[in-house]
């Protein structure tokens, strides 16, 4: 029997973006597969436990204190987390770095290398700290997991970690989110074509390219609606200004529940994802699983996730994006082909497969 403890002290629900869904869905897939030779304990806040019903049946070490405060959390990981996990066979830290005091059999998940690849997204002090912490943690971990092969290769190349110590462990889709939703938000979209982009307004998410693209379609598809979900990021002012001047119909819904986001994905005619940088891109997988055609940037991990099941475009060419959206919306044969290809591609990331990849990483230690 293998005992595995999972450190989720860093995971403040609603505050950490796609890494929250990546982590919780992956762990839920393990719980639902119930491997007979493994016990799993979660170390996290009571708030996180309440937000994840599947945690209720697990051993749970509740962390006390203001975990949203970075300094307190760093201290708690070397004290509270260490005390809770010191007897486990394996301790998996999903937050991108290792605490100073830790169990010797530590696994680290690095979601991406933004501090190295996109330094402009961070203040100088934060960038320097994260580069130091990630490098130190990657060197010290017994095993480094990443959400994609692209990130795994980056860890080997950029951080100098041995390829034998790095594994790609992708996440999965949530079967419970495919239930039909007749909410008012869906009904208000009407019967015209819907293009969806679920992403916070960070600079690398590249909303302006998509807004320019749908503006070019305003005369060809007067009933087309662009729906934007996600919180406000560092590029919010520019996005808000461009939305205010848009010729096309644009609806901004802000942060939405997983159930509503799933319903929007199912309603959409296209999931357009012009991001310049993704460690995985979970909305792409959600769309493919729902049978929604995908158009994505041809960079970072997105070609790996989408493969031949969607259209991959240069991220900063609004004209190309306008033409691709127009083609998918107007060509039912193409839309049907992309829908079927996406659902077939999503099977590679099925919950059972995702759980097996993670459990195999734990067993390897």
Task: Walk me through this protein's architecture.
This protein is an alpha/beta fold. It is 43% helix and 16% strand. It contains 16 helices and 13 strands. The chain has helices spanning 18-33, 46-51, 70-78, 80-85, 114-117, 124-140, 149-159, 184-187, 207-216, 236-244, 258-267, 282-290, 302-306, 318-330, 332-346, 351-363; strands at 2-7, 38-44, 60-62, 90-93, 106-109, 143-146, 166-168, 194-198, 225-229, 249-254, 270-273, 294-297, 311-313.
Order of helices and strands: EHEHEHHEEHHEHEHEHEHEHEHEHEHHH
Q: What gap, in angstroms, lies between the N and C termini?
A: 13 Å
Helix content: 40-55%
Read across the widest sheet, the strand sequence of neighbours is 3-2-1-4-5-6-7
Summed up:
The protein is an alpha/beta fold and 365 residues long. Helices cover 43% and strands 16% of the residues. It is globular and about 65 Å long.
Provide key terms for this protein.
single chain, 365 residues, alpha/beta, seven-stranded parallel sheet, six-stranded parallel sheet, 16 helices, 13 strands, 16% strand, globular
Write the layout of secondary structure elements.
Layout: E1 2-7, H1 18-33, E2 38-44, H2 46-51, E3 60-62, H3 70-78, H4 80-85, E4 90-93, E5 106-109, H5 114-117, H6 124-140, E6 143-146, H7 149-159, E7 166-168, H8 184-187, E8 194-198, H9 207-216, E9 225-229, H10 236-244, E10 249-254, H11 258-267, E11 270-273, H12 282-290, E12 294-297, H13 302-306, E13 311-313, H14 318-330, H15 332-346, H16 351-363
Parallel strand pairs: 1-2, 1-4, 2-3, 4-5, 5-6, 6-7, 8-9, 8-11, 9-10, 11-12, 12-13
